[in-house]
Amino acid sequence: MPRPIRATFDLTALSANLRAIRTCAADARVWAVVKADAYGHGLARAARALADADGFALLDLDAAARLRDLGVDKPILLLEGCFSPDELAACAALGVSIGVHCVEQVEVLERARLARPIGVYLKMNTGMNRLGIRPEAFRAAHARLRAAPSVGPLALMTHFADADGERGVAEQLHRFEAATVGLPGERSLANSAATLRHPVAHADWVRPGIALYGCSPFADAAADTFGLAPVMTLESEIIAVQTLVAGDRVGYGGTFTAGGPMRIGVVACGYADGYPRHAPTGTPILVSGQRTRTIGRVSMDMLAADLTALPEAGIGSRVTLWGEGLSCDEVAAAAGTLSYELLCALAARVPQFELG
Ligand SMILES: *Cc1c(COP(=O)(O)O)cnc(C)c1O
After folding, report:
1. Which of 11, 115, 134, 204 could pair covalently with 49 via S-S, beta carbons 3.0-4.6 A apart?
2. CB 212 within 8 A of CB 232
3. In Å, what is the CA distance from 173 to each residue of 89, 133, 167, 170, 294?
4. Which residues are catalytic?
5. Measuring CA to CA, which residue among 283, 277, 281, 356 is closest to residue 320?
């Protein structure tokens, strides 16, 4: 018997999430964001389930080449562009479009002599201060790219810092619009949060990531309120049971002390599987489909679940760490992080299966 942990991917849910996003942004085309191995879901399977997307956006040329090898003939966009000038020829050969976020990348494109021109998304820094050309320098960069023989269709993009939060998109959207008045080209601005909550920012192409995978970009709204369903379910089993008396401590550091008689189940899942080590006592977990809480520190290969109120549960009982029946967002919130981080951290040692 292998260790009982497994990750299951509901590909029907992944396809349905794309449809839910389309319903919400019917005015726009969809770049399905599949960076970080499709947020831990596997690039190849995500591309299959998202075959109806209008294009795929990711970071690495290698991953773009893999998509082409898999037969994907849709547009592909490298969100951060090329990391070195010698990648340009491969992008042209693969028909992959690239982001351009700085003047150095503009210069590389000006000097390039490519077999065929490539699509470019010129990125503006409208306030995130991560990647992008500042609004006042944007037109000059745009003009240089339009004059460059290696540049084909030239689109415009920016990225919101707080589409999921209080500030929203208004200020950044205003900067973007003011600095691009009259410029030709398609626009792409919206991540999942802006796609779901800020229709003014839909523009020509939305760029959802996390929502495709059935998680919410918002701290104050659950994914199902947008018709999104979980895709990844991380499951395991109870492999041992301990009966505690008052004063017994649990796990490394003995951070949890039983206040009275308790039963705990030891789950075959730990931080080496991608479960967050910082998840404190009280993090939600399902045992036999019933909600309970984790107890004590998460260790490398195991964690403990409270079975005191679940007398039927024991060795072999099914445990859901997140996914179907328990949203990854909720587990992430309890651990002080985001579902993004948990999904991406799924470890290679966890066997993967597909549904749908
Ligand atoms: C990751 C990323 C997205 C997708 O963000 P989500 O919050 O997952 O929807 C969109 N655009 C860019 C530039 C990104 O890097």
Report:
1. 11
2. no
3. 33, 15, 11, 5, 42
4. 35, 252
5. 283
Q: What is the mean pLDDT of residues 227-232?
A: 98
Q: Determine what percent of the chain is predicted with pLDDT higher than 70.
A: 100
Q: Which atom of ligand 1 is nearest to the CA of 131?
A: 13
Confidence check: pLDDT of 354 > 80: yes
Q: For 15-48, what is each residue's pLDDT tens digit?
A: 999 999 999 999 999 999 999 999 999 999 999 9
Q: Across-strand partners of 77?
A: 57, 97
| Residues 182 and 156: beta-carbon distance below 8 Å | no
Question: What does the alpha-carbon distance between residue 241 and residue 282 come to, in Å, rounded to a whole number?
Answer: 18
Where are the domains positioned within the chain? 11-215, 232-355
pLDDT digits (tens, 9 = 90+) for 119-142: 999 999 999 999 999 999 999 999
Which residue of 191, 196, 341 sits with most ligand 1 atoms within 8 Å of its CB, as the best mutation to test the pocket? Answer: 191
Amino acid residing at 254: G
| Whether the predicted pLDDT of 356 surpasses 80 | no
In this structure, whether the domain defined by 11-215 belongs to CATH 3.10.180.10 is answered with no
Residues in the chain: 356
CA 248 distance to own-chain centroid: 40
C-alpha 37/C-alpha 16 separation (Å) is 19
Cβ partners under 8 Å of residue 310, min gap 6: 263, 287, 288, 290, 292, 317
Give the model's pLDDT for residue 1.
80
Question: Measured from the CA of 211, which atom of ligand 1 is nearest?
Answer: 9
CATH superfamily of 232-355: Lyase, Ornithine Decarboxylase; Chain A, domain 1 (2.40.37.10)
CA of 136 from ligand 1 middle (Å) equals 24
Residue 217 in contact with ligand 1 by CB distance below 6 A: yes
Digit-coded pLDDT (tens) for 254-293: 999 999 999 999 999 999 999 999 999 999 999 999 999 9
